[in-house]
Amino acid sequence: MSDDEKKATPQPSAAASPAARTPTVPPQPAKQTSTTKTTKISRRAFVVGALGASTLLAIGAFAPPSMPSWDILNPLPPTREGPTLVTTWKTLDSKYQNAVSKGNLYSPSEYSEFFYFPYPVTASPYYKNVITRLPGPPDVPIDLVNPFYSNDPILKKVAAFNLTCVHLRCIVNPGYGSGEFRLQCPCHGSQYRLTDAVPVAGPAFDLGLLPLPRVKLSYDSASGNITATDLDGTAGVGRTD
Amino acid sequence: MVQPELAGQTSAKKGVLDPIIALLRWIWDRLERTLLLAIKLVFPSRFISPLGFLGMLTVIVFLILGVTGALLLFHFQPIFGDCPPAAPNTTYVPAATCNSAFNSVSSINNQVNWGFLIRNIHYQASNAMVLLAVMHMFYQYFAGRYKLRYEILWVTGIILGVVTIIEAYTGYDLIFNIRGQLAINIGQTLTYYTPVLGANLAQIIFGFSFNDLTIRFYAFHVFIIPIIMLAIMSIHLPKNLVLDIPVAAAITGIILILGGLFPVEVGVRYDPNQLTQITFPEWYFTSLYSFIRIQGLNPFIAGAIIPGVFVLIFTIVPFFDRGRKIAMIDRPFWVALGVASLGQIAIVTVWGFRAGNPFQPLLTEGQLLIDPVLFTGSLLIATALSYGFVYVFVRWRRAKLDALRAAKKPIPYRKAQPYLLTKSEVYALLGGLLLLQAFLDVAIFRAFLDTLNNFALLEIGMVLVAFAATVHIYRVSAQVK
Hints:
Largest sheet of chain B: 2 strands, parallel
Oligomer: heterodimer
CATH architecture of the largest domain in chain B: Up-down Bundle
CATH superfamily of the largest domain in chain B: Cytochrome Bc1 Complex, Chain C
Radius of gyration of chain A: 34 Å
Structural class of chain A: alpha+beta
Distance between the termini of chain B: 41 Å
Radius of gyration of chain B: 27 Å
Number of helices of chain A: 7
Number of helices of chain B: 15
């Protein structure tokens, strides 16, 4: 490097008096390239190199890795809500008992509640979730159990999922089909199991897409409150567990 | 005594106009230095087929869209889910179901003076622009104007066509009815499925919330994409342009007439709290929609790869067709390929409107999935038939002409004799058209008084068509000595 600089600095001074030097300038580069070709670079190469480096540094000024400038394109997401009270076990169960006594066992939307979490509907309609009381043995032969809370006596009877279909982002709805309780998409007919929201029919099943995102719940036995603590997965994309 | 006075009068008259003429000449001389006079604009003095200047008609429709769009800007609110508080003594409207974008479009349609007309013109013109651009492309394709130094015009034209469709897409999403929402859902999902960049790209294009999306699409629709279109247009515009006033007026008139006959509705308001309903995309997207609806086909392949390949094939045509001949009869393969692509577009577009059973219209849920065997089968049959028939026909025609040439017989061709109007016919037609225009002008006035908006739109369109006819008859009859 120091050799290069030494080579580069005297050159401009040599060319400083142009009128007198002009006739002798042309043979000079030829001499240099022939004698000191291996160790020193030409003035032209240095200038071009400096120009290139300067351009790169100028571009680099706009792209610090800590905050790249294309972040101006990214939206400002709203703040994610913390643990939110969804409903109480009592209301959910009484809704279920009412629906069963009215003979609406096979329309699970009768005993479901809808809520937006962790972002309000004003932010995005894709964060609509459902919480459903899963039908149990006296009414249906098989005990439907939420596999994520199979040890919790209350939460195992409850399922809560994000409702944005992972196929093309329509909002799915709880329903009943082919002898099974399901989440059904009105648009293209994707169906998800109500207990764990794994696709079982329609395009989401055909294409092997991910299950719906899961709302993580916690239950307070003293008050009977069911609280949503987190959303596992991305709305419209699915969960990966 | 008399003559000098007259002479003085005429010279005085000349003196009044002289500064204006001098000013115009002065301006014209300075315009020589600008780009404006580099474009050779031809006003044809006789009728030529509008198929030859479909591109210029597309530009005219683009200008109509620019003007009407600018007027709509004064009233459209690109906001979603954030309405102002309800007025006192009214029922409370929760912000969640509030959809300012849709509400503003609906107020443009129903309350704003002239809003209905301007919105209808904007909508019909957007359809016309897509249609004219596609027709323009196919005409240039069949005329062989994509090779032999037309390559850059062709490729920029294809890009411009794709950008036009994206512009139309961003426009109809802004209304935020259920149709726009369907398009948003699909567009966002397809972007998300893009390999590697998908998630970031979706966030940049669509934002996080629907309010982000509205503002972003607004920026795309009214500024970013039009600027890109103008930039591409500056390369795509040829030096010689044909501006045929009567045809341009007629196209504008037809757009207005269509707006009057088929007034576009605001649609069903999108409400996140309501269940999703079955709806269609705009007609230029039903082809893509039918691909997306095929059972078991990945949406990204269906909605991005397949149309991408289709567009790519069109783009690279000039680099594969190396022949020096441009007449259709000398290019049986390429002509048949073009017709086959038209057949594909037609059958796929029709599929978009049909249920899984193609003999049933798409009305209720559960009909959306299309059987891949049925779909691909119909597509292949349509392609093969249209390709085969056209290829055989062109070859047969060519063989016939070659045989005539070999036998040194004259090649027969039909030339339609132009029908020349007699003097009395010209008088009757022009007089009738003028009367019609006068009558329609009064009728428009009445229609506005009675707030019959679509009637007014129809009649304004008819006046423009009558004007076009008048200019055309003038032009035809002025040539007759």
